[in-house]
């Protein structure tokens, strides 16, 4: 068992040009090691800052800083959701809006 999901998954099965959005527990352990692994593989990585956790807020802050320093983009859940629907004309826009209100 490893903390880096890249070592457990066949990352080669993922489409090459797709960005990877990461959320999870223990920002400074599993999330950090997985993000660094994805970046090492040349992937574009977006870490959903409000969808990761840590028992100690200092560990989360340190992990976020390190991920960003290595090239991960820090985003929020709302940013991801609204980028997916792109406009108010999207058929699921109201569903997304209801989730964030």
Observed structural traits:
Rossmann fold; single chain; alpha/beta; 101 residues
Describe, in plain words, how this protein is organized in 3D:
α3 links the parallel β2 and β3. The longest helix has 14 residues. This protein has a single domain, classed as Isochorismatase-like (Rossmann fold). It is α/β, with parallel strands linked by helices and 101 residues long.
Briefly summarize what is shown.
The protein is α/β, with parallel strands linked by helices. The chain has helices at 5-8, 27-40, 57-69, 77-85, 93-100; strands at residues 20-24, 45-52, 73-75.
Tell me the major beta sheet.
Answer: 3 strands, parallel
Shape: globular
pLDDT < 50 stretches: none
CATH architectural type = 3-Layer(aba) Sandwich
Number of domains: 1
Indicate the CATH topology.
Rossmann fold
Helix count, DSSP H or I runs of 4 or more residues: 5
Oligomer: single chain
| Strand line-up of the largest beta sheet | 1-2-3
Distance between the termini: 39 Å
Helices and strands, with pairings:
Blueprint: H1 5-8, E1 20-24, H2 27-40, E2 45-52, H3 57-69, E3 73-75, H4 77-85, H5 93-100
Helix pairs in contact: 2-3
């Amino acid at each position: 068992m490893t903390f880096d999901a890249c070592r457990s998954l066949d990352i080669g099965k993922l489409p090459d040009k797709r960005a990877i959005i990461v959320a999870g527990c223990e920002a400074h352990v599993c999330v950090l090691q997985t993000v660094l692994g994805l970046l090492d593989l040349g992937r574009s990585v977006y870490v959903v800052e409000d969808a990761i956790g840590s028992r100690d807020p200092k560990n989360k802050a340190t992990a976020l800083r390190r991920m960003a320093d290595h090239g991960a983009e820090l985003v929020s859940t709302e940013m991801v959701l609204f980028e997916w629907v792109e406009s108010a004309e999207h058929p699921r826009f109201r569903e997304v809006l209801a989730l964030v209100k």
